[in-house]
Design brief:
Elements (H helix, E strand, L loop, with lengths): L1 H31 L20 E5 L2 E8 L5 E5 L13 H4 L5 E4 L21 H14 L5 E6 L1 H12 L4 E7 L10 H7 L2 H11 L2 H11 L9 H8 L7 H11 L16 E6 L7 H10 L3 E6 L6 H4 L1 H13 L2
Helix pairs in contact: 1-6, 3-4, 5-9, 6-9
Length: 325
């Protein structure tokens, strides 16, 4: 009996030692992983195009482009791993008789990527909705029509919910309403010192899988040419892009938009391709059915980026929607 108790005590001690060592490895191990600095990165302004513009909004230098005049203005918001570059084909076309503004959301494009900040997290969807309104204020825009693609549709919807008096109507291209966003516990884990160190290394992996992800957004992947891909990846030359991408990942919590759709009382145009493999087409169909005042347009032989792959159809759909208001 005494011998058995001694063995159990010894086994318990071994287990505690093993658990202690495991916790020590988890706590200290990440700080032993080398994180080499990014090479060849520059301040975002050095990557700007001749028609690029910058304005300080809520303490951030925001990169934007615009065309046309008149209100309500059209505000274009891009999706994940994109930038205002994704609107290059439609920005000018939509600027017939109205002002059109496309801007880079924090963590993307050439907008400033803060590493440290005071106050609200600039990478959260809610703060980016606030930034949209502050950008409108900075540019002298009183009322806007918001058009968002994918995660940009999430920010557009949040903006309309938080500031309905500033939004005339909304357009959503393959919006991420029912999916997207990490569980709340992930944000807590991602903000630990250990993950803050390893996170940028994980973010850099987009350089390996990004092209495949980009191709999956198109019905015909061959149309994502090397030239277009270079336009998408140009912002990966901007300083701190890896840390910013990780900070955005850490801030991507649940929005609860699906439970608030009845509050979006303004007209909404929902656009989607019939072959969307990022945000399944059925989710856009569901969204149009659950919104109080929505019109649905499904483009044939089109994927997740109709403003690029189905340029003429998406432009005409938006123009027809706006003319009917």
């Amino acid at each position: 009996m005494l011998r058995a108790k001694g063995k159990m005590k010894k086994m318990g001690t071994i287990i505690l030692v093993v658990l202690g060592l495991a916790l020590l490895i988890v706590a200290i191990g990440p700080f032993l992983v080398p994180v080499p600095p990014l090479k060849g990165t520059v301040p975002p302004e050095q990557l700007a195009d001749p028609d690029s513009k910058f304005v300080e909004v809520n303490g951030l230098r925001v990169h934007y482009k615009e065309a046309g005049q008149g209100e309500p203005a059209l505000i274009l918001q891009h999706g994940f791993a994109a930038s205002l570059f994704s609107w290059r084909e439609v920005l000018g076309a939509l600027a017939q008789g109205r002002r059109v503004v496309a801007f880079d959301r924090p963590a993307f494009g050439l907008t400033e990527r803060p590493v440290e900040w005071e106050g609200p997290d600039p990478y959260s969807a809610e703060t980016q909705a606030d930034l949209t309104i502050s950008l409108m204020d900075a540019l002298g825009i009183q009322e806007a029509i918001l058009v968002g693609n994918s995660a940009g549709g999430t920010v557009s919807a949040l903006t309309a919910l938080r500031y309905p008096e500033r939004v005339a109507c909304s357009g959503a291209g393959d919006p991420a309403i029912y999916q997207g966003g990490r569980p709340a516990w992930f944000g807590v884990l991602a903000r630990t010192p250990q993950m803050q160190r390893l996170g940028p290394l994980l973010a850099r992996q987009i350089q390996k899988w990004g092209r495949k992800f980009g191709e999956s957004a198109w019905h015909d992947p061959s149309r994502l040419t090397d030239e277009i891909w270079q336009g998408y990846t140009k912002p990966l030359q901007a300083e701190n892009w890896d840390r910013a991408l990780w900070n955005l990942t850490a801030a991507s919590g649940p929005t609860g938009l699906g439970e608030q759709l009845n509050r979006l009382q303004m007209p909404v145009l929902v656009l989607t391709g019939d072959d969307d493999r990022i945000i399944p087409t059925k989710q856009s169909v569901r969204l149009a059915g659950e919104l109080p005042d929505a019109e649905l347009v499904v483009f044939p032989n089109c994927g997740h980026v109709p403003q690029e792959e189905c340029l003429i159809y998406s432009w005409k759909a938006v123009e027809k929607f706006l003319a009917s208001l």
